[in-house]
């Protein structure tokens, strides 16, 4: 499954919005703060990206707060167990899948193809 890397800075209000959205949606990400980490700043410059938030999702880069594009690029969704509310990553585009919650072992169906 594709990894999300997010470049942020201390003073960016859109970075906070993006972090809150990803966390609340259950998407795991790696944060690289260019204000505190000179190596992260250099990585971003090497990618010829001059603003934050910036995201690397798989092999694609996204500059700015474009959450719909991030969701579109990801090869999974995050589904919530109806019993215990535990979140699990489920691959996209596989039709109807039976998911077994890793926390409570409840099985539930998920349609992974959007209509």
TrEMBL record:
Pfam families: Glutaredoxin. It comes from the Bacteria. PROSITE patterns: GLUTAREDOXIN_1, GLUTAREDOXIN_2. It comes from Fusibacter paucivorans. The lineage of its organism: Bacteria, Bacillati, Bacillota, Clostridia, Eubacteriales. Residues 4-61 form the Glutaredoxin domain. This is Glutaredoxin family protein.
């Amino acid at each position: 499954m594709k990894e999300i890397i997010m470049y942020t800075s201390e003073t960016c209000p859109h970075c906070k919005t993006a972090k809150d959205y990803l966390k609340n949606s259950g998407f795991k990400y790696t944060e690289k703060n260019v204000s505190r980490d000179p190596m992260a700043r250099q990585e971003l410059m090497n990618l010829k990206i001059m603003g934050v938030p910036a995201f690397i999702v798989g092999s694609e880069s996204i500059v700015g707060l474009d959450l719909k594009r991030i969701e579109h690029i990801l090869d999974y969704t995050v589904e919530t167990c109806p019993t215990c509310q535990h979140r699990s990553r489920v691959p996209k585009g596989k039709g109807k899948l039976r998911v077994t919650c890793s926390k409570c072992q409840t099985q539930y169906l998920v349609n992974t193809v959007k209509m």
